[in-house]
C-alpha cells in the first residue's frame, strides 16, 4: 500500500514515483494492477471528460463524484484530488471546508495551484490533518492570466519566484509538488533545494516522479480541432502496445527506469 511515508522512502532511495490521472473505477483498477503509485483525480477532467477548453468550469461536485468513482477501485494507490477553481482561493476556511469533503470522498491528499498566495492556506490545511500537494509552473486555472498553456520560468526573475514559491509551500508543510511545463534544469534545482517530492509534467527527468493525463498517454484525447497536436511532454504509450494494460505497464517501467521523459518531452 502506498502511503505518504512510503512515497518519501521511494524518494530517499531514488525510485521514481509513477503517477497518472484517473477519473473512474475501471481505469483505477487497471492502473493499480499496472503498478501506478499515485492516482491524481485531476481537474483536467474538465477538458478530457467534459470537452471544455480549460479547467475553469469544473465544480467541487464534479471532483467529489470522480473521487468517489476512483477511490474504491484504487487498491493500494495514493489518491490525490485536485481542488477545483474557486473552491480554495477565497480563504483558508473555504479551502478547509472543501478539502474535507474531498478527503471524505476518498482522497488521501488534496492539490491546489499557486505559490506565495497559497502558503497560509497550505499551513492551515496541514495543521488540521490534510496532506497537501502544491502545483507550480503552468497552473492551468490561471490560463487567462498566463496567456495560454506555455512553458513557465524561462526568465531568471520568474525562475527565482518559482524557487521562493516552492520553498514557501515546503515550509508551510506541503509534502508533494507538481511542476508543470518548467525548464528541466529549474525543476532539478527545485527538487534538490526544497526536499519536496516533485512530480513533473514537462519538467524534465530530475523530478522525484512523473505524471501524465491518462487519456493523453493512451492517445485518446484531442480538443476536436483538425490540427490538434498533443503537448510536447506527452508520449503515446499505445504505440507498440497491444492493450491498455500493456501501455500502462510500459509507462510505469519507463518512469521507473528513467527512459521517460526523454529530451524530446522536455523544455
Ligand atoms: N488532456 C490534457 N492534458 C494535459 O496535460 C492537461 C489537460 N488536459 N488539462 C489541464 C492542463 C492543460 N495542460 C496543457 C494544455 C495544452 C498544452 C499545449 O498545448 N502545449 C503545447 C504548446 C506550448 C506553447 O505554446 O508554448 C506544447 O507543445 O507543449 C500544454 C499543457 C496540461 N493539462
Ligand atoms: C496535469 C495534472 C498535473 C493536473 O493537474 C490535472 O490533471 O488536472
Ligand atoms: Mg489539475
From TrEMBL:
<keyword id="KW-0479">Metal-binding</keyword>
<dbReference type="GO" id="GO:0015940">
    <property type="term" value="P:pantothenate biosynthetic process"/>
</dbReference>
<dbReference type="GO" id="GO:0005737">
    <property type="term" value="C:cytoplasm"/>
</dbReference>
<dbReference type="GO" id="GO:0000287">
    <property type="term" value="F:magnesium ion binding"/>
</dbReference>
<dbReference type="InterPro" id="IPR040442">
    <property type="entry name" value="Pyrv_kinase-like_dom_sf"/>
</dbReference>
<feature type="binding site">
    <location>
        <position position="82"/>
    </location>
    <ligand>
        <name>Mg(2+)</name>
    </ligand>
</feature>
<dbReference type="InterPro" id="IPR003700">
    <property type="entry name" value="Pantoate_hydroxy_MeTrfase"/>
</dbReference>
<keyword id="KW-0489">Methyltransferase</keyword>
<comment type="function">
    <text>Catalyzes the reversible reaction in which hydroxymethyl group from 5,10-methylenetetrahydrofolate is transferred onto alpha-ketoisovalerate to form ketopantoate.</text>
</comment>
<keyword id="KW-0808">Transferase</keyword>
<protein>
    <recommendedName>
        <fullName>3-methyl-2-oxobutanoate hydroxymethyltransferase</fullName>
        <ecNumber>2.1.2.11</ecNumber>
    </recommendedName>
</protein>
<feature type="active site" description="Proton acceptor">
    <location>
        <position position="180"/>
    </location>
</feature>
<keyword id="KW-0460">Magnesium</keyword>
<comment type="pathway">
    <text>Cofactor biosynthesis; (R)-pantothenate biosynthesis; (R)-pantoate from 3-methyl-2-oxobutanoate: step 1/2.</text>
</comment>
<dbReference type="GO" id="GO:0032259">
    <property type="term" value="P:methylation"/>
</dbReference>
<dbReference type="InterPro" id="IPR015813">
    <property type="entry name" value="Pyrv/PenolPyrv_kinase-like_dom"/>
</dbReference>
<feature type="binding site">
    <location>
        <position position="111"/>
    </location>
    <ligand>
        <name>3-methyl-2-oxobutanoate</name>
    </ligand>
</feature>
<keyword id="KW-0566">Pantothenate biosynthesis</keyword>
<feature type="binding site">
    <location>
        <position position="113"/>
    </location>
    <ligand>
        <name>Mg(2+)</name>
    </ligand>
</feature>
<comment type="similarity">
    <text>Belongs to the PanB family.</text>
</comment>
<feature type="binding site">
    <location>
        <position position="82"/>
    </location>
    <ligand>
        <name>3-methyl-2-oxobutanoate</name>
    </ligand>
</feature>
<dbReference type="Pfam" id="PF02548">
    <property type="entry name" value="Pantoate_transf"/>
</dbReference>
<comment type="subunit">
    <text>Homodecamer; pentamer of dimers.</text>
</comment>
<dbReference type="GO" id="GO:0003864">
    <property type="term" value="F:3-methyl-2-oxobutanoate hydroxymethyltransferase activity"/>
</dbReference>
<feature type="binding site">
    <location>
        <position position="43"/>
    </location>
    <ligand>
        <name>Mg(2+)</name>
    </ligand>
</feature>
<dbReference type="GO" id="GO:0008168">
    <property type="term" value="F:methyltransferase activity"/>
</dbReference>
<keyword id="KW-0963">Cytoplasm</keyword>
<feature type="binding site">
    <location>
        <begin position="43"/>
        <end position="44"/>
    </location>
    <ligand>
        <name>3-methyl-2-oxobutanoate</name>
    </ligand>
</feature>
Amino acid at each position: 500500500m502506498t502511503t505518504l511515508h512510503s512515497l518519501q522512502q521511494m524518494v530517499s532511495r531514488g525510485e521514481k514515483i509513477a503517477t497518472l490521472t484517473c477519473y473512474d473505477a475501471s481505469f483505477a483498477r487497471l492502473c493499480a494492477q499496472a503498478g501506478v503509485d499515485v492516482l491524481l483525480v485531476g481537474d483536467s477532467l474538465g477538458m478530457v471528460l467534459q470537452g471544455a477548453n480549460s479547467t475553469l468550469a469544473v465544480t467541487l461536485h464534479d471532483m467529489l463524484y470522480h473521487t468517489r468513482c476512483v477511490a474504491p477501485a484504487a487498491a493500494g494507490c495514493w489518491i490525490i484530488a485536485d481542488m477545483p477553481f474557486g473552491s480554495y482561493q477565497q480563504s483558508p476556511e473555504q479551502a478547509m471546508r472543501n478539502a474535507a469533503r474531498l478527503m471524505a470522498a476518498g482522497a488521501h491528499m488534496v492539490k491546489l495551484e499557486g505559490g506565495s498566495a497559497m502558503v497560509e492556506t497550505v499551513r492551515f490545511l496541514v495543521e488540521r490533518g490534510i496532506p497537501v500537494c502544491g502545483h507550480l509552473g503552468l497552473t492551468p486555472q490561471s490560463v487567462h492570466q498566463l496567456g495560454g498553456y506555455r512553458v513557465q520560468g524561462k526568465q531568471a526573475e520568474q525562475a527565482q519566484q518559482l524557487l521562493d514559491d516552492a520553498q514557501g509551500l515546503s515550509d508551510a508543510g506541503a509534502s508533494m509538488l507538481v511542476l508543470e511545463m518548467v525548464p528541466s534544469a529549474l525543476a532539478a534545482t527545485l527538487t534538490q533545494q526544497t526536499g519536496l517530492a516533485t512530480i513533473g509534467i514537462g519538467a524534465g527527468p530530475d523530478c522525484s516522479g512523473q505524471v501524465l493525463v491518462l487519456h493523453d498517454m493512451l492517445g485518446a484525447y484531442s480538443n476536436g480541432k483538425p490540427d490538434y497536436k498533443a503537448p510536447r511532454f506527452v508520449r503515446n504509450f499505445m504505440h507498440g502496445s497491444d492493450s491498455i494494460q500493456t501501455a500502462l505497464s510500459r509507462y510505469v517501467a519507463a518512469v521507473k527506469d528513467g527512459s521517460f521523459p526523454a529530451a524530446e518531452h522536455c523544455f
